[in-house]
Amino acid sequence: MGKEDSDTSLENRLNLLHERLEATAELPIDHRTNRWLGEAEAVVRDAAMNTLDEATTKKRVRQAKHLLEEADGTGNEQADEHLEAALELCHSILEDG
């Protein structure tokens, strides 16, 4: 896989991560957990909507991952699925060397 393919893959995963977090905004979840998710979504949105170098993008994803790990259960099965998928995407993005 060439650098261009890798960049596209990173961009695609970043957009998927943003979509997962954005999808939790309209769901009825615990207000404290909602704050963590909202902060993470804002950080990921910044990375997804702006042209950032890979190191800065990964820094944003690392920040979002930390915020997501602080979130307790959402109390909503659909939101929990989005949260789990978002964490998996964070791990996937950060594991790429």
Overview of the molecule:
The chain is mainly alpha-helical and 97 residues long. It has one domain (3-95). The protein has helices at residues 3-23, 31-49, 54-70, 77-95. Helix 1 packs antiparallel against helix 4 (77-95) and helix 2 runs antiparallel to helix 3 (54-70). It is elongated and about 35 Å long. The two termini are 13 Å apart. Residues 1-6 have low confidence and may be disordered.
Strand-helix topology:
Elements: H1 3-23, H2 31-49, H3 54-70, H4 77-95
Helix pairs in contact: 1-2, 1-4, 2-3, 3-4
What kind of assembly state do the chains in view correspond to?
A: single chain
Molecular shape: elongated
Structural category is mainly alpha
What is the rounded distance between the termini? 13 Å
Query: Average pLDDT value?
Result: 90
> Could you tell me the strand content as a percent range?
under 5%
Which percent bin holds the helix content?
over 70%
Largest beta sheet, briefly?
A: none
Uncertain segments: 1-6
* Strand/helix succession: HHHH
Q: Total number of β-strand segments? A: 0
Number of helical segments with 4 or more residues: 4
Protein name: DUF8152 domain-containing protein
InterPro entries: DUF8152
Domain DUF8152: 14-95
Summarize the structure.
With 97 residues, the chain is mainly alpha-helical. It has helices spanning 3-23, 31-49, 54-70, 77-95.
Task: Supply database-style keywords.
elongated; 97 residues; DUF8152; 0% strand; mainly alpha; disordered N terminus
